[in-house]
Amino acid sequence: MLNNGAKTPVCITCALTTPSGLASAGLNFRNKPLFHKGSVSHTHKFRTRGFVPRCSSSSFSSSRPVSQPRFIQHKTEAFWFYRFLSIVYDHVINPGHWTEDMRDEALEPADLYDRNMRVVDVGGGTGFTTLGIVKHVDAKNVTILDQSPHQLAKAKQKEALKECRIIEGDAEDLPFPTDYADRYVCWKSIEYWPDPQRGIKEAYRVLRIGGKACIIGPVYPTFWLSRFFADMWMLFPKEEEYIEWFQKAGFKDIKLKRIGPKWYRGVRRHGLIMGCSVTGVKPFSGDSPLKLGPKVEDVKKPVNPFVFLLRFLVGAIAATYYVLVPIYMWIKDQIVPKGMPI
């Protein structure tokens, strides 16, 4: 069993195929909440509990279809959602889901060891995570990309990011040449991608050989009510889905690190907008070997305003649940601190 902060790798491909595998890997999806942080590696040669598991891409469970409700998992809806949320994002959302400690913990696997690295921060929003990146990399070498001009306007106001290149763009169709960047960082963006596999394929393409992608995103909740609102709101991937998307895109040395606020109990039980950091290394130059068809969402297609408004309002209601959950967790921790008998 992995403990908080443990670095013990397990073969997540095999561990997630059977109930016994779940238990041996410490990935108990049905019982108590698991861990706030820890590291899970995808490897084909790891001996655990006296046997060598057989790993293959076919052992992954199928990804859930994008046709599930997810009322804010479309670019147009996300655009307008952040049109209003950008006003209070840094002061309301981040304190409950994305703290500075979590940011630094999540960026550690990205291996930002050189100030001259070229980094693209995809879905960079208000630049909160970019502030963590520029601690290690010169701002002039960092590009912040987001589809929301309202979020980017907040990033432009931050003094530490003045030298960053800030552009509007689509995570599923990046405006960068192939073999461009040393590091690809993406935080709180994958949940709005209609086609996550396409976005991760793009991450592979824009990286140089040996470059590393780091995607920070939600984890799928196990508690029925949290799962209900998660499926209504946006995409909360399962851990094995992250690994599958990275593997299919062509990445190697794939690792998943669990993160969460120290006071938030039940990162896996209730889900968390920032619950894990997944990294992978690009082994060969050029585009990803994965071939995909047309985009899932056509942003140029006319939108029925009544349907859009209904979806937007329902999605906003679901989002409210994930504003209230961390407040409840924080109050609970103040009354009965973690570790004390309940």
Automatic annotation (TrEMBL):
Residues 205-218 are annotated as: SAM motif III. InterPro entries: Methyltransf_11, MPBQ/MSBQ_MT, SAM-dependent_MTases_sf, SAM_MPBQ_MSBQ_MT. One of its GO terms (biological process) is methylation. The chain crosses the membrane at residues 308-331. The keyword Transmembrane helix applies. PROSITE patterns: SAM_MPBQ_MSBQ_MT (PS51734). It holds the Pfam family Methyltransf_11. Residues 70-279 form the MPBQ/MBSQ family SAM-binding methyltransferase profile domain. Residues 164-177 are annotated as: SAM motif II. GO terms for molecular function: 2-methyl-6-phytyl-1,4-benzoquinone methyltransferase activity. The keyword Ubl conjugation does not apply. Keywords: Membrane, Methyltransferase, S-adenosyl-L-methionine, Transferase, Transmembrane, Transmembrane helix. It comes from the Eukaryota. Residues 119-128 are annotated as: SAM motif I. Belongs to the class I-like SAM-binding methyltransferase superfamily. MPBQ/MBSQ MT family. This is 2-methyl-6-phytyl-1,4-hydroquinone methyltransferase, chloroplastic-like. It comes from Senna tora. The lineage of its organism: Eukaryota, Viridiplantae, Streptophyta, Embryophyta, Tracheophyta.
